[in-house]
């Protein structure tokens, strides 16, 4: 059997390239958390330079030579010409490197640099436009990015829609054709459920969440929950940023951010738990495989499954609050002393169509994704112009959620993704929601008394299970194979739908 | 006349390389201010990778081709083969690029990577060893770095001592032979002056500085002074780090750090002013020349002249405190209400031999440098082994300052420099002290009523003068030429010595 040892030169090269990518990630993190306002233009150039170098080194003849010695470069099949087979790790590594290489070599390095620069700049313009509710200010940058992404799809090639070429980057193997029935199935059961909830006699009062809560204490509580989850502060940090995110420079340096609103006790809390779920995944990757696909996360859908599982299946469960609500009550004695657990639990699970995706409840969240999924296709396929976006957005919001945002800041400008060129990213959020419940159901079957443990504040047992089942494997398995290995079946929306119907059925007495 | 426009391709290349160096600086800044403890090893590799790439790109044939088209690569003389001369900017740029290129090409890229990695690691070990007062823990890393620096000197070549090859990097043209008489001159007048001060009937009581001062307020005051100096927070930040430093990623993103001790009101204050002086220089460089020598600082000695001028000539002057002492009194009413200006002014100027260089007064500071200057030579020339350092250190401290530090943490382990491989750096501090007074004397002659302006809190006028005379020129002139242009003469210790003798003569009634 040939092992990873045979691939040492290729791996050294990948590791070197990853160090450049990690450096670019440090610069991006810094841009979001620390960079003074004036530094933006220079920073965009610096990040673009690093990404250009990383791309150039990756697609160089030397990589092709090293990779070509191990796989057929046209098909990706491992070469066994000397009669010896590759072991499973080596096969997985080669499959994934070939996939990345094959994609990267289709893009000229100049194009990569240009895309990186334009996205950094667009992000900065977007942030200001959002702040000032001025879509027109963002429009020229959005058009530039959009055109570049269309160009990228052409470079990459596709069978069905150019949008497929972009989807595949975030979630390998995903296509419009594959997603449409999935979304249709969700829509068919979520929309009627939403209607029932809206017509339910049960009215949940969540006003207690929006009293004044000291921001420093909110942060402290978020930090406490992260520690309980097993997030390792020796290998991580918690900072503030306009939009919570997680980034990793190495499994020994994985950073999460949050935001704190004095008049919303849920914002900091759930974003800490959410990003903590991402952080645990990145801290759980095997550092010996840093730089290779075996030290990388499987896909954005799987990554999101980790954050959503912690945020929703755990963080919005009764069990979780059995332990943590008394702690929260102690922290905010004045505000919460007369609110009982059931009231608080209901409040953090209230279903209500709202404008902002990241603040949406577990049910309507996917409707927000459907809005974006449909708009993205039309944008990338060129059936809709960027300037038509605000109108289209509001129209889709009306259709799916029954509400129209009063401003673009609360509408089409709310998400950073399009400024970053991340078209095709949104659907992975819904995939993450589905994977989350599918994995969590399995965890409950395999871990004895999981909910009792959680109710006793013992969260580490779940982190350990996820580490063993998912984190440590990196990209050893495709998302599909991973789901099969962990749960016995491929991705299916059924567990999520049953979970939602059960949870809200109880809460709203439907 | 041929201008910079003719050099466009070369400049583009330099700019690209500088972006990589700037990225490495972001990673270093992050390491000192934010990085979680566990991230150190991976970070050292990431920085080393970037520095290796920057070095490799710089010494590549393409640079040689572009540079060789404009200068004689052996002598550095500009080529005027087509009869047209280069203008002054282009000549300066070519002179400095040739100097850098000539130096860089002597070093193999593998060596640059290794040196970078070992220094990052040594720095981390040093920080722990200093914390724990354990020189032996640091010894192996110090030996590694020392051997690499000796090796570097061999690569670079030298006429007199291998130490000269290292000196020249920080202060172009500086040699042991040039520095020795300078230090001898200082020693000849500073040591007797110190003795007179120690025998003076005037005893300054500075105990008020070491009462308890709220750290948040100290930081606020430091920030206030930075703003008064003209440090632009739209293009900079102030953070905390174990050792105050300034770093620049671009003139639009220049960051200073400080430290705050509750029981020493001077530490945060003077490090803010000191680093602010560095920061003004970096913010004052011409951004259109970013990446080329014309957008870079002249030398460390000149850089230090800016920090020391602000810290000492301004920050420890009576004029400065005429305005700022009432503000400080308001900030720390309880501690300072009964202390008058003269008392406070004397306290922050008390002369007393002490263990820690960065806390030394203006007089004994240079004695600290002489200790290091002599030890460095012996280390690099191989006459002293790293393991003998603690003993040698204490012996020299006794000789120059008459005191022996009780621990290595307060002695040989106090400075970060040797862990970073920065042998040859220390002498630039003394050069900075001398340049500072020489420039400041000139400023007082040229700016009407400068000290009255300062006494009215108007510091911007000095920043503007420095910007015009020094900052904006980058490396257009050598340090020597710059001193001549600004003050009419080359570097001379006379202004500094007269300033010191006058200032302390008054304070100590000598």
Automatic annotation (TrEMBL), chains A, B:
One of its GO terms (molecular function) is metallocarboxypeptidase activity. The keyword Signal does not apply. Zn(2+) binds at residues 274, 278, 304. Its EC number is 3.4.17.19. It comes from the Bacteria. Binds 1 zinc ion per subunit. The active site is at residue 275. Keywords: Carboxypeptidase, Hydrolase, Metal-binding, Metalloprotease, Protease, Zinc. GO terms for biological process: proteolysis. Its cofactor is Zn(2+). Belongs to the peptidase M32 family. Broad specificity carboxypetidase that releases amino acids sequentially from the C-terminus, including neutral, aromatic, polar and basic residues. This is Metal-dependent carboxypeptidase. The lineage of its organism: Bacteria, Pseudomonadati, Nitrospirota, Nitrospiria, Nitrospirales.
